[in-house]
Design brief:
Elements lengths: L3 E8 L2 E9 L2 E8 L6 E8 L8 E4 L1 E5 L4 E8 L5 E8 L4 E5 L2 E3 L2 H4 L4 E3 L4 H4 L15 E4 L35 H9 L4 H5 L3 E4 L3 E2 L10 E5 L6 H13 L3 E6 L9 E3 L5 E3 H8 L34 H18 L3 E4 L7 H14 L4 E4 L16 E3 L1 H11 L5 H12 L10 E4 L8 H6 L4 H17 L3 E5 L30 H20 L8 E5 L5 E7 L13 E7 L5 E3 L9 E4 L4 E4 L6 E3 L3 E7 L1
Parallel strand pairs: 12-13, 12-23, 13-16, 16-19, 19-20, 20-21, 21-22, 22-23
Antiparallel strand pairs: 1-2, 2-3, 3-7, 4-5, 4-8, 6-7, 8-9, 8-11, 9-10, 14-15, 17-18, 24-25, 25-26, 26-31, 27-30, 28-29, 28-31
Helix pairs in contact: 3-5, 7-8, 9-10, 12-13
Length: 616
């Protein structure tokens, strides 16, 4: 079931969505043609109460792009059972909008009102995402385990400083990163991860597998020996929890290795693909895979050594779900990230979520979704998704391919695919183990110094946007790399091995990331609070405001705001935003300087710089 009560209902040239913010507030979001309406209103009343007067609430204009205007309003209700109409006001007329279209007068529109039917107290919970509280304000740190930290030298591993070989088709090269190495990075190594301030570690897969990436699992009940053992994982979770860090495991349930072993009828492990090779569709495991026309199983990304599992088959699904429940019971991890969740199927996700929540009610289920993920979110589905297109939008703006107007248009389109109540569960990132690193993506267009400056701007966007930020190991110290395998180079722990002429720049970047992580932790409302675009246009200056409540039509709940200024151009700008400020003084968060409201009348924003001003 969707979190939306109404989703993108189009009535003439206005689009409307509605969902619960909580049990007393209904959030309505409107899209209208750009600059067509001077104001928008919601006329509403309770159903079945004929003597109740109607109420009229004005919507707030959040952003006016070249493609559309976005408005929102929150209706405070004593019961969730209302009907409403939309009024759009122009210079010459009042236009009324109902479920069936546009009307010239109110009387004509009334019989066709939008309806939010009665939602009982119990049913209301199904409209509210179950995003864990610990996620709000956290920063997730992604670790590709083989390349992050080794605690000892291991025979057969390549030198740590070596570049990953590009001719390693089956990803067999090993560098020696371990679970104990991650423990060292929390409590030794200057308490690196603890000092950085991250709130969650997401590790790429850990289970037995022939490859270094472990996305081709051989045995879902065994930790791969190259990483350690069960006790190492138990210890890692305990150490992380003691230091305020949550742990999310990678669940690869869409595909596996063609050497997958399961327990047979006699209790011994059986390679199901040996049986499939021998007996074909007559095998007892024939329903565990999806078959091609040539009587061969389908492979993920057309790779036959990574067969796609049929999670619609009960026996196969139960095997995978039992494995997830086994590990959650044993190690007490805080959640699972589902690899290619959009290809698994929603029925499997529902079963998995039900079983995991029975073991641990706070378990978080995050899905890797590379496109619009509405189909996969809901009370019995995912409570988190990856926001892959956000990364692409940021890069296009930062490197100058998009103006701030185009950027804002695409950004708003992305966010309004989902209800704001889900925002903390939407994961933004600038790079991960499948993409080029962010600094490399920028460095293609600019020299190194400018690339560091623009990387900082991208990081400011990451940490001040709605959603939860995730950083890829080494991103904070300016590690570079093209796509796989170059983006998976070993963590560069030894500063003395960095190129001397860029050490200061890289340390500056790490200092900014550390400040941004702290900023996020101290202002958790940045993950869900209201957003209003202040400046955007045909240039590369972008200014927006964030507030610590979910809507600008809830001013009585607002106690704090942030003004974010991004100048991605090569020119300085004089900025006057005095009229947009609601507090008398602000802290320049990256420089820890207090600034009075009057100083914003004509403030110079230098080229390729960003500012975050938090009210105080």
């Amino acid at each position: 079931m969707s979190y939306y009560i109404i989703k993108n209902d189009r009535t003439s040239d206005v689009s409307v969505s509605a969902y619960l913010l909580d049990k007393e507030n209904i959030h309505i979001v409107l899209f209208s043609p750009p600059s067509k309406y001077g104001s928008m209103w919601i006329r509403w009343q309770y159903r079945y109460i004929t003597n109740d007067a109607y109420l009229l609430d004005e919507a707030c204009l959040l952003s006016s792009t070249s493609s559309f205007d976005i408005w929102d309003v929150v209706l405070n209700v004593r019961k969730r059972d209302i009907n409403f109409l939309i009024k759009g006001v122009t210079e010459t007329s009042n236009n009324w909008f109902s479920e069936v279209g546009e009307h010239d007068c109110l009387e004509e529109a009334l019989p066709f009102s939008f309806i939010i039917p009665m939602i009982s107290e119990g049913a209301a919970n199904r409209y509210l995402p179950s995003v864990p509280k610990w996620l709000v304000g956290s920063t997730i740190y992604e670790i590709f385990v083989d390349r992050f930290r080794k605690h000892k030298d291991t025979e057969g591993c390549l030198p740590w400083s070596m570049r990953p070989p590009s001719n390693d088709f089956y990803h067999l090269s090993k560098f020696g990163g371990t679970l104990q190495g991650i423990i060292h990075s929390i409590i030794f190594d200057g308490c690196y991860l603890k000092q950085l301030g991250i709130g969650c570690i997401y590790m790429t897969p850990l289970f037995q597998s022939p490859s270094n990436h472990k996305y081709d699992v051989t045995n879902y009940y065994e930790i791969d020996k190259m990483f350690g053992n069960d006790n190492d994982l138990v210890n890692l979770v305990e150490v992380a929890h003691k230091n305020g860090i949550r742990i999310v495991l990678d669940g690869v349930f869409n595909h596996c290795s063609d050497t997958l072993k399961v327990k047979g009828d006699n209790g011994e492990f059986v390679n199901i693909f040996d049986d499939l090779r021998k007996s074909g569709k007559e095998s007892k495991y024939s329903n565990w895979v999806e078959w091609e026309d040539n009587n061969h199983w389908r492979g993920f990304a057309n790779l036959s050594h990574m067969p796609i599992l049929n999670t619609e088959d009960d026996e196969c699904a139960n095997y995978l779900i039992n494995a997830a429940v086994y590990w959650t019971n044993k190690i007490k991890n805080d959640g699972w990230r589902l690899d290619v969740a959009n290809e698994i199927g929603t029925s499997f996700i529902k079963k998995l979520k039900e079983r995991l929540l029975a073991v641990s009610p706070d378990t978080w289920l995050l899905g890797e979704i590379l496109h619009n993920g509405q189909k996969w979110i809901g009370d019995n589905k995912l409570s988190g998704i990856t926001n892959h297109h956000w990364r692409e939008c940021v890069i296009k703006f930062i490197v100058g391919e998009w103006t701030s107007d185009v950027f804002d248009t695409h950004l708003q389109s992305l966010w309004y695919q989902y209800p704001s109540t889900l925002y903390p569960g939407i994961i933004n990132y600038l790079n991960n183990h499948d993409t080029p690193r962010i600094l490399t993506s920028i460095h293609k267009y600019y020299d190194y110094s400018a690339s560091i400056d623009l990387n900082i701007l991208a990081a400011i966007l990451l940490f001040t946007s709605v959603g939860t930020p995730m950083i890829f190991y080494g991103e904070e110290i300016g590690m570079e790399g093209e796509g796989d395998p170059d983006c998976r180079k070993c963590m560069e722990w030894d500063v003395s091995q960095w190129e001397p002429n860029i050490v200061k720049k890289r340390l500056k970047l790490k200092d900014v990331y550390t400040k941004l992580i702290t900023l996020r932790k101290n202002n958790p409302w940045l993950s869900y609070g209201g957003w209003k675009t202040i400046k955007r246009g045909s240039d590369y200056l972008y200014v927006y405001k964030r507030i610590d409540c979910m809507s600008y039509t809830m001013p009585n709940l607002k106690t704090k705001e942030a003004i974010v200024v991004i100048n991605a151009s090569n020119e300085d700008y004089n900025l006057d935003i005095y009229d947009y400020l609601d507090f008398d003084s602000y802290i320049d968060s990256l420089n820890d300087i207090e600034i009075k409201k009057c100083d914003f009348c004509n403030k110079v924003i230098t080229a390729r710089t960003g500012k975050i001003f938090i009210s105080c």
